[in-house]
Structure formats: structure tokens, C-alpha cells
Amino acid sequence: RAIAEKFGLLAGKRVVITAGPTREAIDPVRYISNHSTGKMGFAIAAACYSAGAKVTLLAGPVSLDTPNGVRRINVSSAIKMLDESMHQLEEGCDVFIATAAVADYRVAEVAEHKIKKAGDELNVSLVKNPDIVATIAQQSKRPFMVGFAAETRNVEEYAAGKLVAKKLDMIACNDVSRADIGFASDQNAMTVFFAEQYQMEKRDLEKASKQEIAQQLVEAIHDALHHEIE
Ligand code: CTP
Ligand code: CA
User: What residues form DSSP beta bridges with 151?
Assistant: First the structure.
């Protein structure tokens, strides 16, 4: 697509994006988290804003500057990210893009005080976190739902499974076993799948900068939003 045509692809749409890792407290000074940098989500936020959307970015703890024109709300735990997502849904949301690497489990009972070093072993019991994107997809006034899947094997099969299980409209997946792309890299390559009712072919987004990939994802969202559903 030509630059001029790209401009305004999401004009007037309200877009909510989750990004970065979540942080799950163990005690007042310690936490469980992961290596997500938030780069992909922040690049998508910037691309959505450039495409004319009103963008709210729900960011876990990352060290990135807020993209120009984007409203950013910082959150820490998965529970806080879900609460804020539900709040944003009430405020109105047309497209929900879940790029966050949400911690799958949180500590069952967060210690009130710093845990003191004692025995040779420490056991921390974990409980499952809510699935944010699946929870939003279950709401009656649901937005167009976009998920992400980073896999190390059976990439397309697992991603297609998540598309159905989480009732998403679209999922973008990448193979994080490839050293040249994903996570901390500035480059990415993805495959996009659409829910069956769209009857749209999967799209391979070739290896490119996260900015370029973000632009292609915006186009995929736009195309699906304007596609006749059965
Ligand atoms: N996701 C979410 N809330 C969670 C876990 C995941 O919103 N508690 C979202 C992610 O933001 C992503 C999609 O679900 O868009 C897929 O995340 P992923 O971690 O790949 O899926 P899981 O269902 O957690 O499966 P697993 O980690 O076992 O592969
Ligand atoms: Ca997970």
C-alpha cells in the first residue's frame, strides 16, 4: 500500500494494546517476571496512532518511551492488567491487541514482609492467572480481538489452537526459537491467521523491523475489519 493510502486505515477507531511483561510479587521486594521488552506492542501502538486511531497502551514494567500521541497506563501484575483492560472496555474499545507476555501464574500468597533466608529450600506455591485476552473476548460488547503467540515449536498449530480457544479474530505468531527474531530483537517475522468466519488466507509477514511488521499488522486488522463476515 502507498503511504498516503495507509494513513487513516484505523481512523476514528479506539485501540487498546497490552504490552510488556507482567510482574508478580513474591514479597515486598521480590517478583516473578519474564524477558519481554514490550518493543512489539509499543511499535504497534505507534503504528495504530499513525493510522489515525485513538490508542491506549496498557504497559507492564518496560524501559521504553511512550510513543507520540499514545495514552499510556502503567500496570504491574496480570490482575491489574485485566482490571485496567476491563475498564478500557467500558470506556469503549473497537480493537483490542494483546501483545503482553502475561505471567501465566502468580504467587498464591504474597508474603506481607520480606522473606528471610532460612532453610536450604524455599517452596513458593503458584496459582494460574486469569487469561486477559480470552476474558475480554467473552464480553458481550467485544471488540475486534488480536492475539499473539510466541512459540518454540509447532508454531502454526499452537497459534491456530489459541485463535479458536481464546475466541480471537486474528492471531500473529512467531517462532522464538529463531535467534534472529523475536523477544529482544529489533527484527521480527510473523504469520497471521484470521478466524474461520473471515475466510481470509493466512499472511506471512517477512522478516522486517518491528516498525514494518507493526504497519503490516495494522493493514491486516484494517482488512479484516472491512471484510464481509458470513
Ligand atoms: N494472554 C493473556 N493473558 C494471559 C496469558 C496470555 O491475555 N494470562 C494473551 C497474550 O497476550 C497473547 C495470547 O494470550 O496475546 C497468547 O499468549 P501465550 O502465552 O502464547 O498463551 P497461553 O494461553 O498462556 O499458552 P502457553 O503460554 O501455555 O503457550
Ligand atoms: Ca503464556
Answer: 175
Whose atoms come closest to the Cα of 82: which ligand? 1
Mean pLDDT of the chain: 94
Flag whether 230 is in a domain.
no
Predicted complex ipTM exceeds 0.95: yes
Are 225 and 212 within 8 A, CB to CB?
no
Q: In angstroms, rounded to a whole number, what is the distance separating the alpha carbons of residues 60 and 87?
A: 16
Ligand 1 contact, 100 CB (< 6 A): yes
Residue 175 in domain: yes
Q: Which domain holds residue 36?
A: 3-112+121-224
Ligand 1: which of 104, 153, 176, 190 to mutate, judged by most atoms within 8 Å of the beta carbon? 104
Nearest to 18 by CA among 96, 93, 94, 89: 96
Q: What is the pLDDT of residue 212?
A: 94
pLDDT band at 185 (very low <50, low <70, confident <90, very high): confident
pLDDT of residue 187: 80
- Give 87 Cα–ligand 1 centroid separation in angstroms: 20
Domain holding 150: CATH number?
3.40.50.10300
CA distance 159 to 36: 19
Q: How many domains does the chain have?
A: 1
